[in-house]
Amino acid sequence: DAGVIQSPRHEVTEMGQEVTLRCKPISGHNSLFWYRQTMMRGLELLIYFNNNVPIDDSGMPEDRFSAKMPNASFSTLKIQPSEPRDSAVYFCASSFTTGGKEQFFGPGTRLTVL
Amino acid sequence: GQQVMQIPQYQHVQEGEDFTTYCNSSTTLSNIQWYKQRPGGHPVFLIQLVKSGEVKKQKRLTFQFGEAKKNSSLHITATQTTDVGTYFCARDDKIIFGKGTRLHILP
Q1: Rounded-to-integer distance, Cα B80 and Cα B18, Å
Q2: Which of A83, B63, B83, B95 has its CA 20 to 30 Å from the CA of residue A20?
């Protein structure tokens, strides 16, 4: 099995630019999670989907962040406009259900906003 | 209120020494998960604890869930260099991760 796939693995952009991060969950998983990791704040849940429906987006920092899951095999996290404080590693994870099951994390996207 | 606190934040041990990290919550947990993240890697699931007082072992790793289901611990016996990384607990009902304990092994 391929595991959770994220792209790009690294992204360097300038402040004000739009950034789109992509995730392909493990086939058959119906829950998908987006996390942001920084040294200062640790691993933060941004949003999660269950059966392609956003369930909890309370972790999304502000309106500049948006996430979509148009189908069971693809999700995007978009930042527009990006700011230097958005620099972090963004992880996507998937699981069979929202609770009670292990999450499988992707390799992450390291975002640097200059 | 729903956060999980992990201590210590950092731990340096000599290879061969034991290591323990603790995870504490002010509220009762339905279950707790433990993950390990190697430097430069992504979190990898280790185990889930559900029952009060539960103890599970994976080779040199021992996981415990407190009787009140408000705390948990991970103990590694005789650490090896392969144990290097950050160990996270996560309260599954709210999908909230602790800040992690970073383990560094001194050769």
Answers
A1: 10
A2: B95
* A105 shares contact with chain B (CB less than 8 Å): yes
Backbone angles phi, psi at B7, to 5 degrees: -140, 145
Check CB contact under 8 Å for B33 and A102: yes
Residue count (chain B): 107
Residue A39 CB contacts under 8 Å (≥ 6 apart), including other chains: none
Which pair of structure tokens corresponds to residue A9?
A: 């693995």
CB neighbours of residue B6 within 10 Å: 22
Contact indicator for B5, B24 with CB cutoff of 8 Å: yes
Nearest-neighbour CA in chain A from B82: distance (Å): 19
| Phi (first) and psi of residue A89, to 5 degrees | -100, 130
Start-to-end Cα distance in chain B: 39
Whether residue B2 is predicted with pLDDT greater than 80 in this model: the reply is no
Name the DSSP letter for residue A9. S
Query: What tens digit of pLDDT does each residue of B58-85 get?
Result: 999 999 999 999 999 999 999 999 999 9
| Amino acid residing at B20 | T
